[in-house]
């Protein structure tokens, strides 16, 4: 039995109503401008809203021809955005903070995942329900993610030296076979892989215990914000419409993903479950009130604090809400 499931982070350390469509009817950008959206990982329902936007012509109707560029272990997000090859990239606040600290001219213009997907997965017979439960446990993880564990422990007053860290590949097998007590993973992949194989697990989201790092964020350069603003607004408006459709029918988004990428080796049942698990990470009372992708001064302040703990200090100026204000205006 294998549970190997790749994910960008841990490889290195898934219908608008007629009234809604009218509400977001976009002003036309220049006729069929060709732009690219750089994804953060390989094609999967993780980016289902973008596939809907493309399939339903939301970008085309706004005058954009959008290419969706897959990411992967050898396709980092930031270089094509800096070079202008991609108008927007999908990244995460910690990756963007690291790039900005090295001089990259990025701004975060939207937040798809309101809750960070990092989680501790365990088995019901020996569950981890809170950070304090990690004490005395064997935790399987990639050593590159040690700063994540350190930040979680600092926020929750847990002595990290009381946790036995076991370097593991990104695979559920060490947990299922009893080699470790728990795993650091994304809530949307290894727990999904285990459930598909009939293995029940317990998932503790780090975001529920003070680990505030925006994930699946949209980044653009300062130059694009100044000189390609109409394109940014059109792209993000189509993205919002696509994700609202996704929220209305995640299973349809999963089916579309599998149909669009028949050579990607995607399993429909897995994609459907991943699509379902993403919903509470991406949609909240905040997005219900303000719209998809929104962030507040308070959520930004929480991110700034967690990024400081991760050794990636930034100011709140890294986030720019002006594009979303036009989209949702």
From TrEMBL:
Taxonomic lineage of the native organism: Bacteria, Pseudomonadati, Pseudomonadota, Alphaproteobacteria, Rhodobacterales
Assembly behavior: Homodimer.
Function: Responsible for the formation of the pyrimidine heterocycle in the thiamine biosynthesis pathway. Catalyzes the formation of hydroxymethylpyrimidine phosphate (HMP-P) from histidine and pyridoxal phosphate (PLP). The protein uses PLP and the active site histidine to form HMP-P, generating an inactive enzyme. The enzyme can only undergo a single turnover, which suggests it is a suicide enzyme.
Reactions performed catalytically: N(6)-(pyridoxal phosphate)-L-lysyl-[4-amino-5-hydroxymethyl-2-methylpyrimidine phosphate synthase] + L-histidyl-[4-amino-5-hydroxymethyl-2-methylpyrimidine phosphate synthase] + 2 Fe(3+) + 4 H2O = L-lysyl-[4-amino-5-hydroxymethyl-2-methylpyrimidine phosphate synthase] + (2S)-2-amino-5-hydroxy-4-oxopentanoyl-[4-amino-5-hydroxymethyl-2-methylpyrimidine phosphate synthase] + 4-amino-2-methyl-5-(phosphooxymethyl)pyrimidine + 3-oxopropanoate + 2 Fe(2+) + 2 H(+)
Signal peptide: none
Keywords assigned: Iron, Metal-binding, Pyridoxal phosphate, Thiamine biosynthesis, Transferase
Protein name: Thiamine pyrimidine synthase
Domain SsuA/THI5-like, chain residue ranges per copy: 46-253
PROSITE patterns, alphabetized: TAT
Involved pathway(s): Cofactor biosynthesis; thiamine diphosphate biosynthesis
Pfam family, one: NMT1
Family designation: Belongs to the NMT1/THI5 family.
Stored InterPro entries: NMT1/THI5 (IPR027939), SsuA/THI5 (IPR015168), TAT_signal (IPR006311)
């Amino acid at each position: 039995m294998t549970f190997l499931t790749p994910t960008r982070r841990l490889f290195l350390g898934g219908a608008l109503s007629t009234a809604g469509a009218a509400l977001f009817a976009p002003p036309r950008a220049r006729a069929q401008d060709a732009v690219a959206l750089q994804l953060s990982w390989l094609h999967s329902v993780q980016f289902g809203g973008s596939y809907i936007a493309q399939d339903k012509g939301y970008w085309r109707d706004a005058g954009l021809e959008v290419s969706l560029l897959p990411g992967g272990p050898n396709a980092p997000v930031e270089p094509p955005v800096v070079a202008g090859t991609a108008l927007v990239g999908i990244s995460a606040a910690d990756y963007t903070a690291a790039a900005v600290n090295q001089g990259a001219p990025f701004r975060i213009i939207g937040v798809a995942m309101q809750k960070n997907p990092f989680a501790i997965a365990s088995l019901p017979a020996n569950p981890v329900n809170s950070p304090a439960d990690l004490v005395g446990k064997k935790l399987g993880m990639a050593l590159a993610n040690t700063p994540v564990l350190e930040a979680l422990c600092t926020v929750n007053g847990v002595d990290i030296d009381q946790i036995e860290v076991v370097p593991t590949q990104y695979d559920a097998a060490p947990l299922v076979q009893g080699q470790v007590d728990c795993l650091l993973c994304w809530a949307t992949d290894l727990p999904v892989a285990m459930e598909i194989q009939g293995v029940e697990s317990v998932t503790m989201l780090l975001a529920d215990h003070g680990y505030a790092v925006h994930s699946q964020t949209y980044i653009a350069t300062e130059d694009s914000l100044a000189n390609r603003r109409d394109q940014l607004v059109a792209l993000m408006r189509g993205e919002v419409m696509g994700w609202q459709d996704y929220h209305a029918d995640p299973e349809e988004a999963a089916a579309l993903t599998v149909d669009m990428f028949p050579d990607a080796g995607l399993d429909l049942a897995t994609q459907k479950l991943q699509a379902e698990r993403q919903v509470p990470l991406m949609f909240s009372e905040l997005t219900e009130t303000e719209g998809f992708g929104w962030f507040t001064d308070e959520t930004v302040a929480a991110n700034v604090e967690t990024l400081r703990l991760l050794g990636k200090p930034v100011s709140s100026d890294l986030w720019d809400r002006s594009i979303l204000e036009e989209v949702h205006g």
